[in-house]
Structure formats: C-alpha cells, structure tokens
C-alpha cells in the first residue's frame, strides 16, 4: 500500500526499532541512504546496512538476516516485483520500499499489511483499480445444487437446467474478466520507467520533520542529477524537480546583498550551463 504520511506511518514506526536497510548500488540510492542514515543517527535509531546488486544478493541477504529483524527498508529495489512471492517472509515482517523503478507491482500496491510504499503519489502511476485485477475466489465456486428427495422429477429437471445455465454464464463471465485483466496488466506493465528520485523522497521526509540540512539537500541534488545524466527521467520531470530543490536551496542559503559576493563552505547554489550540440560536417 502507498504510505500517505511518511512521518507517522514510516519514521515513527521504525524510530524505536532495529531495522535492516537494503540499498541498491546506484548513485540515487546511495544519496537516499545517506539522508536516511543522517536522520537515524540524529534520533539514535539502530540499523544494519546491506548493499545489494541484484535479486540474488537481496534474497541471500534477506535469508541471512530475516530472523533478526521485523522491519526492512529497501531503497531503489523491490517496488516493481512481487516482493512477498520472491522473499517468502514471515507474516510479521514489514517492508518499507522507497524505489524509483516503475511500474509498481500491483500486489505491492494492494497489500495493506506487509508492504508499505514510500513513493510520491503525485507521480503519474496509473495503477489499475483493485476490482479490475483481483477477484474474490468465492465468486468462482460452482453453484451446487441440492436436490430434495421429495421433489418431483420435473422440478429436479428444471432446477438442473437452471444450474447448468448459471454455471455456463459464470464461466463465460470469468473468461471475459480474465481477458480484460490480461489487457489491463499488459498496458500497465509494458513500459519501464523511473519516478521521483529516492534521494528527493528522503529529503522531503527530513524537511517535514524540520531536520533537513544543507548536506542532505546536496545529496538530494546529486540523486536527481544522477537520474538526469543517465536519461532516467524526462526533461520536464527534471525541470520540475529542480524547481522544487531550488526553493529549498534558497531557503537554506538566503543571503542579503551585502553577503552576495561572499562565499561560504556551507553555501549551496544550483546553476545551469549551456550545452553546445556540435555536429561534424563531412
């Protein structure tokens, strides 16, 4: 399920717990991890950090540590696969997933107990509706007729014919629903893309708790830049997120005119350089 209040539904839950961090080996994940580590160190949260590069490493690390932890945090891994099916955890295990990979697996979205998604819902997720992809198994049970011994043969025959029609209709509806489900999931899962930087998500958490620092802001900028230079996000998404970070930069590094020409080692500024597209003429 999507977490709506990161502070109450995530941070305050793990605040007094010992947690395990699984962190992917990309720059954005490392920056997000640095921000979360800074928050944990500030609040004396006990944690163990395990870097992972692929599902095999994640499975191996989880099997090694699962008996010692109930709360697991996954950064830039886990959102786009059926996490419970892969890891087969105990029922008391809870996973907090902060991941930029899209699309988000629908099982993770609609699991209300063990999967908590730390994902900005203002991203264009377009998750299918629950009733379009999940069906109550009780609805699929065949109608069972209960013939009364005292019934007349004609009544039994009529009841049997009605049951046959009902079963046939139910099977046809089931096939039609499954066909629609396949089409919906195909449209939803056919393209892979990336959402908001995990470093930005973690910085937003720090900001909501009034614990954001210039170092954290720098890590958020680096995480977003990593997405941009590796063509993981569109120019429109990049410009939008840069605008968000620019406001934080202004807030953290406000200077008056007398200080404008003075430099500080703690000062942060976002600036842009023109890119020159050179083409050779043959």
Automatic annotation (TrEMBL):
Alphabetical UniProt keywords: Cell cycle, DNA replication, Nucleus
Composition bias type Acidic residues, residue spans: 139-152
GO MF entry, a single one: DNA replication origin binding
Record's subcellular location: Nucleus
Any GO BP annotation: double-strand break repair via break-induced replication
Residue ranges with Basic and acidic residues bias: 153-162
Keyword Cell cycle in annotation: yes
Pfam family, one: CDC45
Keyword Cell inner membrane: no
The organism's place on the tree of life at top rank: Eukaryota
UniProt GO cellular component terms: DNA replication preinitiation complex
Subcellular location, principal: nucleus
Region entry Disordered, spans: 139-162
Family: Belongs to the CDC45 family.
Stated name of the protein: CDC45-related protein
Native source organism of the sequence: Cricetulus griseus
